[in-house]
C-alpha cells in the first residue's frame, strides 16, 4: 500500500510537463520505488515458498498478520501519515497474538508422498470444506453484484451499511479463492522437499497440476488486489484483503492437513 502511494507521487512529479502544464504518464519500470518494491516482493515470496515446506500452514498464514505492522511503519515513515493511539493498540494486539501463536501453535510439518497428498484432496472433510467455500464465494459475489447495481442506480447515495459491505464482500471472494494458492504452494514445496531427500521425480501429472492451480489462484489474487485498489480506498481494502486471506488460509490448512489434531491434541481426552 505504501509503495503504491509513493509510486503515485513519483509518477505525478516525474510525468509533469512544466512548459505546457500537461502530465504525461511514464511506464512504471522507470520509477525506483517500483523496482525496489518488485525486488522485495519476489525475495519475500521466495522465502515464503521455502518456509511452506518446513512449517504448518496455519502457523505461516497467521504470521502473515505481521504485514499490519509493516503497513504501520510504511504509513508513518514513507507516507507521513498520522498514527493514532487506536492503531498502535491494535498493532500491539497483533504482535501479542503472534507471540502466543508461535509459542502454542502447531510447529510440525511432515513430508507427504504424492499419494498421501492426493488422498487428502479427496478426504470427505476437505470436500465439505470446499463445498462451503463455494457457497461463501457465490453468496458474497451476489451481495457484491447487488451492491454494485444499487450504486449504479442511486449514484453515490448509498447507506453506510452498503458502503462497508461492498468492499467486504469483494475481499471475501478474493480471499476465499486466492488463499488456496497457499495450499498449492505448500504442496509444491512438499514435493521439492521430497525430491531433495528421497530422490522423488518432479516430472508427474500431480506436480504440474499443483503448479497450474497455484499460478491460477495466485494470479486471481493479484488481479483482484490490483482491481480492488482502483475501486476502493487502499486504507480500507488492503486490511480487508489481508484479514480474509489469513482467515481462509488458516482454515484450509486446518482442514486439509488436519492440523487441528495436533493443535488440540493436548486438550483432548485420551482414548
TrEMBL record:
Subcellular location: Cell membrane; Early endosome
Superkingdom as given in the UniProt entry: Eukaryota
Single GO MF annotation: magnesium ion transmembrane transporter activity
InterPro entries, per database record: EmrE-like, Mg_trans_NIPA
Single GO cellular component term: early endosome
Coiled-coil stretches: none
Quaternary data: Homodimer.
Name of the protein in its database record: Probable magnesium transporter
Amino acid at each position: 500500500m505504501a509503495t503504491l502511494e509513493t509510486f503515485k507521487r513519483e509518477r505525478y512529479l516525474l510525468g509533469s510537463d512544466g512548459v505546457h502544464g500537461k502530465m504525461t504518464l511514464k511506464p512504471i519500470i522507470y520509477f525506483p520505488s517500483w523496482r525496489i518494491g518488485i525486488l522485495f516482493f519476489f525475495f519475500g515470496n521466495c522465502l515464503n515458498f521455502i518456509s511452506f515446506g518446513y512449517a504448518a500452514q496455519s502457523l505461516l498464514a497467521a504470521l502473515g498478520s505481521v504485514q499490519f505492522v509493516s503497513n504501520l511503519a510504511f504509513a508513518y515513515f514513507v507516507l507521513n501519515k498520522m498514527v493514532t493511539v487506536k492503531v498502535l493498540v491494535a498493532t500491539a494486539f497483533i504482535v501479542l497474538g503472534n507471540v502466543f501463536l508461535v509459542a502454542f501453535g502447531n510447529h510440525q510439518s511432515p513430508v507427504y508422498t504424492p499419494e498421501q497428498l492426493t488422498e487428502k484432496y479427496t478426504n470427505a472433510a476437505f470436500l465439505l470444506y470446499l463445498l462451503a467455500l463455494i457457497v461463501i464465494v457465490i453468496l458474497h459475489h451476489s451481495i457484491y453484484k447487488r451492491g454494485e447495481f444499487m450504486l449504479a442506480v442511486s449514484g453515490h447515495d448509498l447507506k453506510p451499511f452498503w458502503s462497508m459491505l461492498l468492499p467486504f464482500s469483494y475481499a471475501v471472494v478474493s480471499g476465499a479463492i486466492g488463499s488456496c494458492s497457499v495450499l498449492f504452494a505448500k504442496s509444491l514445496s512438499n514435493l521439492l522437499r521430497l525430491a531433495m531427500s528421497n530422490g522423488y521425480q518432479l516430472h508427474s501429472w500431480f506436480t504440474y497440476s499443483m503448479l497450474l492451480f497455484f499460478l491460477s489462484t495466485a494470479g486471481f489474487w493479484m488481479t483482484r488486489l490490483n482491481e480492488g485498489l482502483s475501486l476502493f480506498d487502499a486504507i480500507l481494502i488492503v486490511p480487508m484483503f489481508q484479514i480474509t486471506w489469513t482467515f481462509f488460509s488458516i482454515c484450509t490448512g486446518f482442514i486439509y492437513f488436519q492440523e487441528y489434531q495436533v493443535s488440540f491434541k493436548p486438550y483432548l481426552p485420551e482414548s
